[in-house]
Design a protein that fits this description.
Layout (H helix, E strand, L loop, with lengths): L5 H14 L3 E5 H8 L7 E7 L2 H11 L3 E3 L1 H10 L3 E5 L5 E6 L6 H5 L1 E3 L8 E3 L2 H12 L5 H11 L5 H10 L3 H10 L7
Parallel strand pairs: 2-5
Antiparallel strand pairs: 1-2, 3-4, 4-5, 6-7
Helix pairs in contact: 2-7, 3-4, 6-7, 6-8, 8-9
Length: 189
Amino acid sequence: MTPIDTVALAAHVASILEDLGIRYVIGGSVAASILGEPRSTLDIDIMIEVDEAQARALAKRLRDDFYVDELDAVESVRNTSSFNAIHYGTSTKIDFFPAEAFARPQFDRRRALSIRHDLPPLYFYSAEDLIVRKLMWFRMGNEWRDVVGILKATGPSLDVAYVIDAAKERPVGDLLFRVAADAGIELKS
């Protein structure tokens, strides 16, 4: 197994998605590390705007470098659930999340960021959307530290009204104000 270069692997997958005309946005720990407090991760979370035919094409394109089940990819679109691909060389897992209707506007808010000079820009969630997503995941696990880090790093530039409204729509508004207090940031609508 080779050492994991998560950003390079994300760039490789992003190039496949772009070749197939699939809009994507990188989230999870990779995005939290870029937008907030750096930390190691063994997976990459990517939301994709995809139909069944595109999911099938994506699985076929990934096969050279990843273990991926084409039927799982198609079923994930039908059921709005996730599917994954495991990189042969590093065992890094890529979790693909077909976009739900409420998430589609997040593609318009995504940010192209140049992380390294040797890689093309990659699309990441806006800080606001990543905060709301992390708070949604917090209800099912532990994403608190990531959100604190993102708030500390991006607090002054946040679209506060947007993040408050989005958090209330997904009902994580109560968590937003608690995590902002933990980050030492006062959010006012």
